[in-house]
Design brief:
51% of the residues lie in helices and 23% in strands. By secondary structure, the protein is an alpha+beta fold.
Length: 167
């Protein structure tokens, strides 16, 4: 039996998305395919799989092969995001082994947020002069994306400061 769930997560909420996928797994729904705000699940053994997400900097077949060699499977890809799973062995499924790797991941997410937000702000400001109806949409979306990413930017800053103090 399969089911499709339509749900939206923000770019900077990958941990919430992974937690939701893991909760679905505990309920016996295993991710089969991912699309734009759409998740297809198949019914299976509750809790069999653990899920994680990672924003890749580029399509790196060597990195994907490395993950697969460690028992991690790619369930799906959406833009730069890769949806990963591994069999639940009772230990946490962590992709980032050190502070530097999580900081690099946060940098990738923040870069995408600020580029998308900045482009929307640019088009919104450009539209102001021409009076186009998209102006408010672009300005609002750009501001929401840039402001929405601020908590992640603060978390990243605190983590970087903590790392500096430990050196």
């Amino acid at each position: 039996m399969n089911k499709v769930v339509h749900k939206a997560f923000l770019l900077w909420d990958w941990e919430k998305e992974a937690a939701w996928l893991n909760e679905m797994s505990r309920q016996g729904w295993q991710l089969k395919r991912v699309g734009w705000c759409s998740y297809e699940f198949e019914q299976g053994e509750p809790g069999r799989w653990q899920y994680q997400l990672e924003m890749l900097q580029k399509n790196d077949p060597d990195y994907i092969a490395f993950l697969e060699d460690t028992g991690i499977q790619v369930v799906g890809k959406l833009f730069s995001w890769v949806y990963l799973r591994r069999e639940n062995d009772g230990t946490p499924f962590e992709l980032f082994s050190d502070t530097d790797s999580i900081l690099r991941h946060m940098d990738r997410v923040l870069t995408v947020c600020y580029v998308i937000g900045g482009v929307n702000l640019f088009f919104g400001l450009t539209d102001l002069a021409g009076g186009f109806p998209h102006t408010l949409l672009n300005l609002g979306l750009g501001a929401l994306i840039c402001l929405g990413a601020l908590p992640l930017a603060r978390r990243r800053h605190k983590l970087a400061q903590k790392r500096k103090m430990q050196e």
